[in-house]
Design a protein that fits this description.
- By secondary structure, this protein is of the alpha+beta class.
- Among the domains are: 7-84, P-loop containing nucleotide triphosphate hydrolases (Rossmann fold, 3-Layer(aba) Sandwich), CATH 3.40.50.300; 155-249, Helicase, Ruva Protein, domain 3.
- Helices cover 41% and strands 11% of the residues.
- The strands form four sheets. Strands 1-2 form a two-stranded antiparallel ribbon. A two-stranded parallel ribbon has the order 3-6. A two-stranded antiparallel ribbon has the order 4-5.
- A hairpin with a 2-residue loop joins strand 4 (64-69) and strand 5 (72-77).
- The protein is globular and about 60 Å long.
- The chain starts with 6 loop residues before the first helix and ends with a strand.
- Involved in bacteriochlorophyll biosynthesis; introduces a magnesium ion into protoporphyrin IX to yield Mg-protoporphyrin IX.
Length: 283
């Protein structure tokens, strides 16, 4: 989605002249219709007008886009994975909008010299022979796609015990989270992570793994979470590292926000080089 996109470019528009002339409603599709069944990527989402961000999040949550102009309405399905990135140094999202994003991932700091060299070398190899470069990772990519499909099919069978709900609620309360979006997202993300592992039920490890992604942009106070709600047999699982207080305020969401109100989210740390990526699955 381009930074300067208008509302009509995003949601689509109705040709009122054709309605008056031919008495036939004509709908010009927007980006939301084109993204149906795929991914809509928004760079610098914090620089978009709040109205457009709100529209994006509403449609992503409902899966339906409704366009109304002068008493004429049109609706169409718009189910897509919404991914947005932002640099908080260039401006912030309103807290109400920030909370609408399901998961938040902080991009790593500056790359090492070795990483820079590897990325440039891989990029050069891709430019010289794209087909040969992609063939090197064909088997790995096929295995990754199969694992994603298996996880999606197994997601409906993953069970959640009562202690999971209690643990998530206690941690959200201790982190000073407002509303229930964090609880719902945390539960779905933990289930998705369990399905990705091939497990039959949500474990403490699943809860801990997705915790930073859920609370990074919602935490209002640091917390020392106890383990009262943990099952005894999993009490030895290391707790996830809590993000520092400095991420709140201007540092919230750190270097990037990647949301998935979708069935899956891929973490593309090697995207610049074209190398295969490791997935982080969410629903």
């Amino acid at each position: 989605m381009p930074l300067g996109a208008s509302e009509d470019r995003l949601v689509g528009s109705l040709d009122l002249n054709k309605v008056l002339a031919d008495r036939e409603a004509t709908f010009h599709v927007g980006l939301l219709a084109k993204a149906h069944g795929g991914v809509l990527y928004v760079d610098e989402v914090n620089l978009l007008p709040d109205m457009l961000v709100d529209l994006l999040l509403d449609v992503a949550a409902s899966g339906v886009n409704v366009v109304e102009r002068d008493g004429i309405s049109h609706s169409h399905p718009a189910q897509f994975s919404l991914i947005g990135t932002m640099n908080p140094d260039e401006g912030e999202l309103r807290p109400q909008l920030l909370d609408r994003f399901g998961l938040c991932l902080e991009q790593a700091g500056p790359m090492s010299i070795e990483e820079r060299i590897a990325i440039v070398q891989q990029r050069d190899a891709f430019d010289r022979d794209p087909e040969a470069y992609k063939a090197q990772f064909a088997n790995e990519q096929a295995a990754l796609m199969q694992q994603l499909e298996d996880a999606q099919q197994a997601l409906a069978t993953v069970t959640t015990e009562s202690w999971v709900y209690a643990t998530i609620a206690q941690r959200c309360e201790a982190a000073g989270v407002e509303g229930l979006r964090a609880d719902v997202t945390w539960h779905r993300a933990a289930q998705a992570h369990a399905a990705w592992r091939g497990a039959a039920s949500v474990s403490q490890a699943d809860i801990d793994m997705v915790e930073p992604w859920v609370l990074a942009h919602r935490r209002t106070r640091s917390a020392d979470i106890g383990s009262d709600a943990q099952p005894p047999e999993q009490s030895g699982v290391p707790q996830a590292r809590h993000l520092p207080r400095r991420l709140i305020g201007r540092r919230v969401a750190a270097r990037s926000i990647k949301t998935a109100l979708a069935r899956q989210t891929l973490s593309a740390a090697g995207q610049a080089s074209g190398a295969p990526c490791r997935p982080k699955l969410s629903r």
